[in-house]
Amino acid sequence: MDAEQLREYGHRMVDFIADYYKSIESFPVLSQVKPGYLTELLPESAPNDPECLQDIFDDILQKIIPGITHWQSPDYFAYFPSNSSTAGFLGEMLSAGLNIVGFSWVTSPAATELEVIVLDWLAKMLKLPNQFLSTGKGGGVIQGTASEAILVVLLAARDKILRKVGKKSLEKLVIAGIFPENLRVLKTDLTSNYALSLEVVSEAISSDLSAGLIPFLYVGTTSSAAVDPISELGKLAKAFNMWFHIDAAYAGSACICPEYRHYIDGVEEADSFGMNAHKWFLTNFDCSVLWVQDRSDLIQSLSTNPEYLKNKASLFFPSASQENAVVDFKDWQIPLGRRFRSLKLWLVLRLYGVANLQSYIRNHIRLAEQFEQLITSDSRFEVVAPRTFSLVCFRLIPPPNDQDNGYKLNHGLLDAVNSSGKIFLSHTVLSGNFILRFAVGAPLTEDRHIKTAWQLSFRRGLNLAKLIPNSKHSSANETTVNVELEDSGTLLSRHGASRPALGRITTTLMNKSVDRKTWDCPRNPKNY
C-alpha cells in the first residue's frame, strides 16, 4: 500500500461520503429500481487493466446510488434504525486501516482488552448487575447481529442442559439446525399490549414437559416494540432450569436514560442480555453487544483449541493460571475471525459522551410522540399498539362493513406512501390487522420530517378512503385539509419517467443544500 496514494484517495472518498450526506434528502428514500437492473449496467467480467478513481465515483453515482435504499435518510421510518455517525464512521475507518483479526488475545491484545473495557463501560451505563461485568464470572462480547447473539446463547443453553440431563438426550438433537417442531411460537394480543403473557409461557412449558420434551430456552421478539414482563419470565425460567435471554436489540439503547431503565428491571434474572449498538446508538453497523452472567457457558459450548491456536496467556496453555488468563473471544462466538469492532463504539462513547447519547435518544422519542399526537388528532386514523419508545403502529380506520377490516385499505396506503419516494414505512400484522410501522431513529431526522411524513400519510390515506363506497371518509360533508407537498425533481419515477443524470461528485451531488445537524462533539445536548 502506498501511503501517499492512500492519503489522496482517502481524502476524496471522505469528500464523496460527506457530499452524499449533504444531499441525501434529494434521493428517493426507497430504491425504485427493478430486480436485475445492475446486471444490465455493469460488464460481465472484471477489468484487465486498472481504472481511475473518478470513473469509479461516476459509476457509483450513476449505477449504485439509484439502487440504494437510504437508511440514513431523515425520511427513513421503515425498520428500526441502523445508525451512522461521524464517530462511528471514523472508528470503522480506523478498524479497516489496522485490519487486524483479533480472534485471541495474542493476535492483538489491544483489540481484546478494549472490547472488554468498553463493554464494561456500556454495562455500567445500563446499570446491569455486576455479574455481567468482566470483573465477575460474566462479561460482554461484540457479535455481528442480534440473531447471531441469539444463536450463540441457543447453543450455550442447549449444551448446558445436555450436561445436566446426560447423554441419553443426545439422540433427540438436531445437528446444525433447529427444525420447526423444535420451536414453539407463542401468540400475543392486545390484552397484554402484544407482550408475552406469563400464563401463555407457563402453559407452553407444561405442555412440552407433558409431551416428554425438555424446554431449555426462551427469548422474546416483537414487531410492535412491546416490552415483556422480564422479572416474572426470568423467575419462571429459573424454576424450570431454562436459559433466559433478553433481546433488547432496539430498545436497549433507551435504557441508558434513567426514565426508561425500569423497562429492563429484572435483568438480574437473565442468563444473557443483548442490544444492538448499531441500531440506536450512533455506532455504524455491525455492533451487536451480548453480555452473559457466566462466560464459561459460552466457552464450554463454542471453544476451539487446535494446537496452532494456543497461546501462552490462554487457560488452555499448560503454564497459564486462572488469575493471569486472558480472554480469547474466538471461544465466545461462532466464527473464528473477528474484526476490531470495539474501536467505533469507543469513539462514539468518547466523542459524544453519555449525556449527549441520552439526549439523542430522548429527541427521537419526542419526535415519535409528536407523530403519535398527529395520528390521534384525526379520527380517521388510529394508533393500534401502545407507543413505548420511538415506534408508532397505526392504521387508517376502515368503514364498518369492510370485509377484511381494512387489510387491503392499509396495504394500499403503505404502497401509495412508499411509491412516492418521499418517505419509507414498513408494516406488520397485529391481531390479523394490517398495520403501518413508523420508526423514528435516523440521526438526521428533525421535526419537519415528522410533519411531512404525516401530511403524506394523511393525504394518501384520504385519497384511498374516498374510493371506498359507503366509507365515512368519502362523505361530501367531511372537512378535508389541503396539504401541498412539493415534488422533488430528483425523485425517481415508478412509471419510467425521465430522471436527472447524475454527474460527477463535484457538481450534481452538491446541487442542493440541506439544513442538517452533525453529530461531531455537540456542544449543547438540548440541540438534539
Automatic annotation (TrEMBL):
<keyword id="KW-0210">Decarboxylase</keyword>
<keyword id="KW-0663">Pyridoxal phosphate</keyword>
<dbReference type="InterPro" id="IPR015424">
    <property type="entry name" value="PyrdxlP-dep_Trfase"/>
</dbReference>
<dbReference type="Pfam" id="PF00282">
    <property type="entry name" value="Pyridoxal_deC"/>
</dbReference>
<comment type="similarity">
    <text>Belongs to the group II decarboxylase family.</text>
</comment>
<dbReference type="InterPro" id="IPR015422">
    <property type="entry name" value="PyrdxlP-dep_Trfase_small"/>
</dbReference>
<dbReference type="InterPro" id="IPR015421">
    <property type="entry name" value="PyrdxlP-dep_Trfase_major"/>
</dbReference>
<keyword id="KW-0456">Lyase</keyword>
<dbReference type="InterPro" id="IPR002129">
    <property type="entry name" value="PyrdxlP-dep_de-COase"/>
</dbReference>
<protein>
    <submittedName>
        <fullName>MYB family transcription factor</fullName>
    </submittedName>
</protein>
<dbReference type="GO" id="GO:0006520">
    <property type="term" value="P:amino acid metabolic process"/>
</dbReference>
<dbReference type="GO" id="GO:0016831">
    <property type="term" value="F:carboxy-lyase activity"/>
</dbReference>
<feature type="modified residue" description="N6-(pyridoxal phosphate)lysine">
    <location>
        <position position="279"/>
    </location>
</feature>
<dbReference type="GO" id="GO:0005737">
    <property type="term" value="C:cytoplasm"/>
</dbReference>
<dbReference type="InterPro" id="IPR010977">
    <property type="entry name" value="Aromatic_deC"/>
</dbReference>
<dbReference type="GO" id="GO:0019752">
    <property type="term" value="P:carboxylic acid metabolic process"/>
</dbReference>
<dbReference type="GO" id="GO:0030170">
    <property type="term" value="F:pyridoxal phosphate binding"/>
</dbReference>
